[in-house]
Amino acid sequence: MTLDITAIRSQFPSLNRPAIFFDNPGGTQIAKPALDRMTNYLLECNANHEGAFATSIASDAILDEAHQAMADFYNATSPEEIIFGNNMTTLTLHLSRSLSREWKEGDEIVVTRLDHDANVTPWVLAAQDRGVKVIWVDFNVEDGTLKLDELQKALERKPRLLATGYASNSLGTINPISKIVKMAHNAGTLVYIDAVQYAPHGSIDVQKLDCDFLVSSSYKFFGSHSGILYGKYELLEQLYAYKVRPATNTLPGKFETGTQNHEGIAGVLGAIEYFEWVGEQFGGEQAEWLTEYGYTGRRLTLAKAMYAIRAYEFEISRALLSALQSIPNLMIYGLNDVRRLEERVATFSFRIKGLHPRTIAEKLAQAGIYAWDGNYYAINVTERLGLEESGGMVRVGATHYNTFAEVERLKEALMQISAS
Length: 420
Fold this sequence. Notes:
By secondary structure, the protein is α/β, with parallel strands linked by helices. β5 (161-165), α7 (177-186) and β6 form a beta-alpha-beta unit. The strands form three sheets. It has a seven-stranded mixed sheet with strand order 2-8-7-6-5-3-4, sandwiched between helices. A four-stranded antiparallel sheet has the order 9-10-13-12, covered by helices on one side. It has a two-stranded parallel sheet with strand order 1-11. Helix content is 41%, strand content 13%. It has helices spanning 5-9, 32-44, 54-74, 88-100, 121-130, 148-155, 177-186, 206-209, 233-238, 262-282, 297-325, 357-366, 379-384, 404-419; strands at 20-21, 82-85, 108-112, 133-137, 161-165, 190-194, 213-217, 227-231, 330-333, 347-352, 369-370, 372-374, 393-397.
């Protein structure tokens, strides 16, 4: 069954305005179940941990349910493998301190120039603190794909850690992450995956990937401003946690320092419940093959949801690519071959000859179309492309609540901007 776009959009109250949201790679609009969860939490059970009274007991139950929901979303083996935090950046800075505690001077780690800086600088800083060498892996400027030959050479040096992205928030590239994890593990290297950009667009299975750590932020998948880290239980259990003395030593609490954003975590639960609704309504019998992976219950429903979303967004990607390629003097950075749409999410960055990216973004905003300009914190990408000093790029990104009519509006606006 295909998505009913009217039914989908009815789940997003903020879409009821004369605006077109193509700023999604920087943060999606919130789904009503996530909004309801946050409101209900604050009104009905707003309390701190482990009290003997009703609101605290109810609060703890919601947080436990949210951990289980994210375990199902990632297909983790246990909710104890799920760590909540402010956002992906904060969680990565936190974990980098714990992981680097085990590094020794002369060790090496690997980062890539295709990544968001939140999966680069935390590791570079930790390496500086410990006297560890950083090996950089480049990407192909022609199509925005990671140079796997360079990665293989870097892994032959037996680095302690590889930090890499699931999908590029700048160029939209989906990395062959399963292959990359196997390459790293063959070298005895731990893998830390930034899945922030990929999470709204496709199914994640940490067990199938066999990754060591994976992190995303729910404000990129229709929820609240919260970060969610997965780590293999045995690794999280062994790692030293920087925390205050009264805090628990058991998982997941040992890494969830201080009082968490409880209403935000409730919002994450609501976002997962939204995906459940999508799976129940539009998963369809054509996705029954997902049972071959052993998925059952909520995990199966979520996998069906992401399958349906991915199928719809494939067509949106095709329409976006066609629209952008029709604009005179417009250059797309990254994969622009329609035969390779499976290798990207619906995120496109571009420039129009003779126009500053900020000017284009401002003109789009005047037309009621929201888009980002600059480097989007993927500063290594714009530096590598030679675009950082001249304003970076313009970025448009679709999700499954965007429509083909909106793509056509974007095309018309860009056509006028280019002509001017």
